[in-house]
């Protein structure tokens, strides 16, 4: 929001410097980005009156005799296409400074002496976007009452100071000059005095010419006035100056009035050419799917049912809250004007403007909120200005549909509530004084009081909002800085934090290096390594397609990191990440995704480098599985591993699902060769584990158990089994025998080949038995082995060799 300080001082009596005002506003809740003085760096620029203008043969130049208040006119050579005799212009005298610190000197052009320069606004440093269209390619004409020889700074309001405010969404009331004036008045305990326009209506009633109707629940109110026989012309210089200082290009008196009211009231407006209407009823309704509208910028817009359109004869003539339509725009031949004001649903306007990439001053205000109190007043004010600046005739009455709540909002609290939150000892009288500065009504006493909040401050709804208002007007710098007292509380880590630290310690002890990858990826990669993909959570307006969806796995991002390193000749990699993945269980886009804490790692290359004594040891499945098993041991958990062939991106013969209490919590294995080729990486092994599930299953810390003094007994057994039997099935069968003294099961040999049937394999196990309080006898161990053998025969049809 760009605020003209000259204009602001007309609305509230403030005599502080802009630096002082900026400091005050920044410390009371509205940040000031900076203060700009348009005349800064410019000098020796005066009003000139062109007495004569003659063309230089065979050139685009003109010889102008210009009176600048001196005894004699001065000769200036000018190449502007619109220069002519009889006009007032901007003249840079010799020695003057214009934009970019360029110094004007006496000189000769084509042998003709030039004693100065006739300037355009661009040459004074004003951006092209705010230059009036009629002067975009030439010099600026000044008002006829400008006095030759006087400085042009007050004529063009270049001596103004422009305060740039950074308005947060909760203070959208300051997106208008009146709103800023109320804020400044509260800070300095002043009174506001806003301009009042008298409206002289004709006997003709506006409702006899047009009607308005609302057919959408996204439109709260819609009001219109008719101004007939308006003369379309350039706005007076003061109005153009105010628009340009606010960053808006002057167009003509009708459009400029709507923009002026936008700046003054914060109320977006639009003007239609009544003679271009094909009917007499204006309807605000939802757009129909596939309906189109050519907007003022000449672009054809395809609309959806989420958009609001203003229609006449059921044809769209404007995109509600965003931009008008080309078919009813004001042009030089317009005479009869329909002025509209409305209040639209902010969310709808934001969706429409974002989808169509049509961000405007109007849409920004509708999105953040409108002052209900001044909707009708703004319409009347604009009509009075058109009567004043365009000699129009205002028809009697507003034509309106829909109602707005205008009564002040009542918010109650107590003095104790305020002082406890702020740590202050404010009296009720001080609180009364603060709300008087804000021009809020107040009733009650210190025990319980009610504040009557005007509609211009729609951000105040609850007690906490009142506390904030008191704090900022009282002064944040006056609030006590003593830290709050609290009893001594021993801090401790949550179970999740403890788990992450343990996992991080183990991972780094295993030689893994931590990385942090993006939580946003492509929709395809988001579900690539997911065992049970859910609905993808996508951003509505992502910065890039590569960062458009929340990940449901960590590995796809890790493989991008592996590829990045491999491409730079760093092929021996061992990396891990602890982060969140996101699963959206609901069908609605409004459902928030569930965040799951996850641990993942990726290893590739060699475990041990080749040297003159040993061969290099490449990473394999068992190395990756060993890291997972070490994690289970560290956490005092028991993981089971089951062959997994359902993951498309993983090698079907070298991948295992990880089970905890018979529930799948992750997987470990080799990335599918085709997937590895797609990523441009060598043979890589990965694992991903659901830490949220692990946290739930964590057991209390183990208590110390004395090491037994009695020896363990080992027995080996070789089993002939069907080739499709897995190690996990054998372990489960052995455990099913229920031998309490069995302390370890170790597979030490697997054999297929000669002397064994093609559909069989031999697996050799070492079983360890131990009694903590006595030595085991051979007879006891033999009974154990017999039970285990019977269990293997019954469950797996094993043959003990």
UniProtKB/TrEMBL annotation:
- Where in the numbering of this chain does the FDX-ACB domain appear? 708-801
Chain segments annotated as transmembrane? none
> What keywords appear on the UniProt entry?
Aminoacyl-tRNA synthetase, ATP-binding, Cytoplasm, Ligase, Magnesium, Metal-binding, Nucleotide-binding, Protein biosynthesis, RNA-binding, tRNA-binding
Cellular compartments annotated: Cytoplasm
> Which Gene Ontology CC terms are recorded?
phenylalanine-tRNA ligase complex
Cofactor, free-text remark: Binds 2 magnesium ions per tetramer.
Tell me any Pfam family this protein matches. Answer: tRNA_synthFbeta
State the name under which the record lists this protein.
Answer: Phenylalanine--tRNA ligase beta subunit
Q: Which organism is it from?
A: Streptococcus minor
Its taxonomic placement starts with: Bacteria, Bacillati, Bacillota, Bacilli, Lactobacillales
């Amino acid at each position: 929001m760009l605020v003209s300080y000259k204009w602001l001082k007309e609305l509230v009596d403030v005599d502080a410097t802009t630096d002082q005002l900026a400091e005050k506003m920044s410390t009371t809740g509205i940040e000031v980005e900076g203060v700009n003085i348009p005349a800064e760096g410019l000098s020796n620029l005066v009003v000139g009156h062109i007495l004569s203008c003659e063309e230089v043969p065979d050139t685009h130049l003109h010889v102008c005799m210009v009176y600048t208040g001196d005894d004699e006119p001065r000769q200036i050579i000018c190449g502007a296409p619109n220069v002519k005799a009889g006009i007032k212009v901007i003249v840079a005298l010799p020695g003057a400074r214009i934009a970019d610190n360029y110094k004007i000197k006496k000189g000769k052009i084509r042998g003709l002496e030039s004693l100065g320069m006739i300037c355009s606004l661009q040459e004074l440093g004003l951006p092209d976007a705010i230059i009036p269209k009629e002067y975009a390619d030439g010099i600026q004409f000044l008002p006829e009452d400008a006095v030759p020889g006087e400085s042009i700074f007050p004529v063009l309001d270049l001596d103004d100071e422009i305060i740039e405010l950074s308005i947060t969404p909760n203070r959208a009331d300051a997106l208008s000059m009146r709103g800023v004036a109320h804020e400044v008045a509260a800070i300095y305990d002043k009174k506001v005095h806003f301009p009042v326009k008298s409206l002289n209506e004709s006997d003709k009633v506006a409702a006899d010419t047009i009607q308005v109707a609302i057919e959408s629940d996204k439109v709260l109110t819609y009001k219109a006035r008719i101004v007939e026989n308006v003369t379309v012309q350039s706005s007076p210089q003061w109005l153009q100056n105010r628009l340009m200082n606010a960053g808006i290009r002057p167009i003509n008196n009708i459009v400029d009035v709507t923009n002026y009211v936008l700046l003054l009231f914060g109320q977006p407006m639009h003007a239609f050419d009544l003679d271009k209407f094909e009917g007499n009823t204006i309807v605000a309704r939802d757009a129909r799917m596939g309906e189109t509208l050519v907007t003022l910028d000449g672009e054809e817009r395809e609309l959806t049912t989420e958009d609001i359109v203003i229609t006449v004869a059921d044809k769209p003539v404007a995109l509600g809250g965003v931009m008008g339509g080309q078919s009813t725009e004001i042009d030089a031949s317009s005479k009869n004007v329909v002025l509209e004001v409305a209040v639209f649903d902010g969310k709808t306007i934001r969706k429409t403007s974002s989808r169509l990439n049509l961000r405007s001053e109007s849409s920004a205000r509708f999105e953040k909120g409108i002052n209900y109190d001044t909707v009708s007043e703004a319409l009347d004010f604009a009509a009075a200005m058109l009567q004043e600046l365009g000699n129009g005739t205002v028809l009697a009455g507003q034509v309106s549909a829909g109602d707005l709540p205008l009564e002040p909002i009542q918010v109650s609290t107590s003095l104790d509530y305020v002082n406890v939150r702020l740590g202050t000892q404010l009296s009720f009288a001080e609180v009364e004084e603060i709300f008087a500065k804000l021009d809020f009504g107040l009733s009650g006493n210190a025990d319980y009081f009610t504040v009557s909040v005007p509609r211009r401050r729609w951000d105040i709804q609850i007690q906490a909002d009142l506390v904030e208002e008191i704090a900022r007007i009282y002064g944040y710098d006056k609030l006590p800085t003593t830290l709050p007292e609290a009893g001594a509380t021993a801090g401790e880590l949550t179970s999740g934090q403890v788990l992450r630290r343990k996992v991080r310690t183990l991972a780094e002890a295993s030689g893994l290096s931590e990385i942090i990858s993006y939580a946003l990826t492509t929709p395809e990669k988001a579900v690539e390594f997911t065992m049970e993909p859910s609905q993808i959570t996508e951003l509505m307006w992502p910065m890039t397609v590569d960062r458009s969806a929340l990940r449901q796995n960590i590995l796809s991002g890790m493989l991008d990191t592996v590829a990045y390193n491999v491409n730079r000749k760093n092929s021996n990699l061992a990396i891990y990440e602890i982060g969140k993945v996101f699963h959206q269980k609901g069908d609605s886009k409004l459902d928030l995704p569930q965040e799951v804490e996850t641990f993942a790692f990726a290893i590739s290359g060699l475990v041990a480098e080749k040297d003159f004594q040993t061969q290099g040891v490449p990473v394999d499945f068992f190395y990756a599985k060993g890291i997972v098993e070490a994690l289970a041991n560290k956490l005092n958990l028991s993981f089971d591993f089951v062959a997994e062939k359902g993951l498309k991106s993983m090698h079907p013969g070298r991948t295992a699902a990880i089970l905890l209490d018979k529930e799948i919590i992750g997987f470990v294995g080799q990335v599918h060769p085709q997937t590895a080729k797609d990523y441009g990486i060598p043979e890589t092994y990965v694992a991903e584990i659901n830490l949220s599930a692990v946290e739930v299953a964590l057991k209390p810390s183990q208590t110390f158990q004395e090491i037994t003094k009695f020896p363990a007994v080992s027995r080996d057994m070789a089993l002939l089994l069907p080739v499709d039997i897995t190690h996990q099935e054998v372990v489960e069968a052995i455990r099913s025998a229920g031998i309490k003294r069995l302390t370890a099961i170790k597979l030490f040999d697997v054999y297929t080949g000669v002397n064994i049937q093609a559909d069989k394999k031999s697996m050799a196990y070492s079983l360890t038995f131990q009694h903590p309080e006595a030595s085991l006898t051979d007879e006891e161990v033999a009974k154990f082995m017999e039970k285990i053998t019977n269990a293997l025969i019954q469950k797996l049809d094993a043959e003990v060799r």
